[in-house]
């Protein structure tokens, strides 16, 4: 890994910051619902400075990997803490994730463009992990698989909650486009043009 910051590092840090913003949106939802019997800011990132102001340039890869793990851990811990065994709370958090996604006002003219807009936001490990692998691409449809599930380990046996929230978030992100998101039983993911 280069000793110097490059575009890929800023791109990855932007993805981490997007997840931090989602965490803060879920905290705001919980506060509005009166669920906060304690200070929920412990789940929020304490440092939102720009990447070049805070990164350890002697260990760029390791620093970014640590930030990813920290963001994933706090996200899962927040949802597990808030939802507990209450499925209605989980549904409220799904709605909040969808609303957060819709508020981003994402635009895309083709399915591949929509995929790339999502890839610019959603945190799926380090770029070298190559988690999302496209298997089909046309203007109206793009299909991909995940080479590994890198999220569920953070969710203490509730990995499916991560994917419920992610599906709601993606639906929200795509809500201002002509495309919708599908997760099929075979494990594949699809962005497809909505029927006219």
Summarize the structure.
The protein has 196 residues and is an alpha+beta fold.
Structure notes:
This protein has a 4-stranded antiparallel beta sheet with strand order 1-2-4-3. By secondary structure, the protein is an alpha+beta fold. It has helices spanning 7-33, 51-54, 60-83, 87-103, 111-119, 159-174, and strands at 132-137, 141-146, 179-183, 189-193.
- Trace the largest sheet across and list its strands: 1-2-4-3
- What percentage of amino acids are in beta strands? 5-15%
* Cα end-to-end separation: 47 Å
Global morphology: globular
SSE sequence, one letter per element: HHHHHEEHEE
Mean pLDDT, all residues: 95
Q: Find the count of extended strands (DSSP E, 2+ residues).
A: 4
The rounded Rg comes to: 17 Å
The tally of helices reads 6
Structural class: alpha+beta
Which runs of at least 5 residues are low in confidence (pLDDT < 50)?
none
Largest sheet: 4 strands, antiparallel
**Helix content range:** 40-55%
């Amino acid at each position: 890994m280069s000793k110097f910051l490059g575009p890929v590092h800023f791109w990855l840090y932007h993805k981490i910051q997007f997840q931090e913003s989602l965490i803060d949106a879920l905290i705001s939802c919980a506060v509005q619902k009166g669920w906060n019997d304690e200070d929920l800011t412990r789940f929020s990132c304490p440092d939102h400075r720009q990447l070049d102001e805070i990164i350890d340039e002697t260990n760029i890869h390791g620093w970014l990997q640590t930030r990813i793990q920290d963001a994933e851990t706090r996200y899962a811990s927040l949802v597990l803490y808030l939802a507990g065994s209450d499925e209605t709370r989980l549904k409220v958090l799904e709605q909040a994730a969808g609303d957060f996604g819709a508020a981003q006002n994402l635009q895309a003219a083709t399915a591949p463009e929509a995929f790339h807009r999502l890839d610019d936001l959603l945190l799926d490990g380090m770029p070298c992990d190559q988690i999302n692998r496209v298997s089909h691409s046309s203007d109206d449809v793009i299909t991909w698989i995940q080479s590994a599930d890198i999220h569920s380990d953070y969710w203490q046996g509730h990995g499916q909650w991560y994917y419920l929230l992610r599906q709601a978030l993606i639906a929200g992100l795509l809500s201002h486009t002509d495309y919708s998101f599908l997760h099929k039983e075979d494990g594949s993911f699809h962005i497809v043009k909505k029927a006219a």
